Automatic annotation (TrEMBL):
InterPro entries: Metallo-B-lactamas, NDM-1-like, RibonucZ/Hydroxyglut_hydro
Listed GO MF terms: hydrolase activity
Metallo-beta-lactamase domain segment(s): 27-239
Protein name: MBL fold metallo-hydrolase
Organism superkingdom: Bacteria
Biased composition (Basic and acidic residues): 323-341
Signal sequence, start to end: none
Pfam families (alphabetical): Lactamase_B (PF00753)
UniProt key word Hydrolase: yes
Entry keyword set: Hydrolase
Region described as Disordered: spans on this chain: 314-341
Amino acid sequence: MPNHATRATTPDLQAVVPGVWGLRNVFVNLYFLRDTSSPLEPWVLVDAGLYGSADKIRRQAEAIFGPNNPPAAIILTHGHFDHVGALKTLAETWNVPVYAHPLELPYLTGRSSYPPPDPSVGGGAMAALSFLYPRKPIDLGSRVQALPVNGTVPFLAEWRWLHTPGHSPGHVSFFRESDRTLLAGDAFVTVQQESGLAVLEQQQEVHGPPAYFTIDWAQARESVAKLAALEPQVAATGHGIPMHGEELRRQLHELSAHFDQVAVPAQGRYVGHPAVTDETGVVAVPPRPEAPLPKWIIGAALVGGLGYLLLRDRNGQPNSRAGHREPRGRYARRHRDEYEF
């Protein structure tokens, strides 16, 4: 598993480590997990991609586990639109339960919308487009239930879950101690998710959680520190290509040590004033930033960013900025004239 891969050099479906397969769904990842003790162990789907992707997910599951072999459950890192798009269809088709953290349940049972995204942070096309991203809840009814309070993962004896909030109230990550494999969700990611071009290219580098949806930066900082302390050998995240080894740990520790400088935006709706949530959903959110996002950014992002993403040109040349690390704001300002919209 190289740490210099790009979208052009990796297939959409790839084996990450034994018992873990990752599927890229346009710009978000989901994972198929099975304990390694036996090929007869049940398997679990972690996250459910974008709306309209149910058929693709089922086909890939059959390619791995064979036909007529549904998962034992679907387990969520969190419930943002790009992680639950095919959830209702898959859960109903397979007739399986869904598990999530208790603080994520209001957004999965129709009780609360998520806090509004902040398109003013991040400086890229994906961030600028975020005002369009769905945030209303889905309603799974009694099909969804809370993860066990003791940290065990249903049907996966080798794994445990950790509460890693900040990006969302009930965000969780999953860790397998035996080989130090981490499924981080969006607690941190391995691509600069705010940038349309970075999402297209998918160069491997550790970044903080996608800024436009992160609602509590103090919690996000603590979550990154918690995951860095695990010293993972492999990290597979909600966005970007999995990373491994010493380079992964070096970049993750760098992110943790300098989180305020390299991850937290200089200003934004939730910077210094987090959204307030509880077990019922959103209680209060800070007001919008006074300065609206410039219309030229929004318009150009709609035309250029979405076009770039959906075309998914796999013939581009690798970019020489692989492994580059610098604060979000400085990176965005320096490259805006080159390719940001």
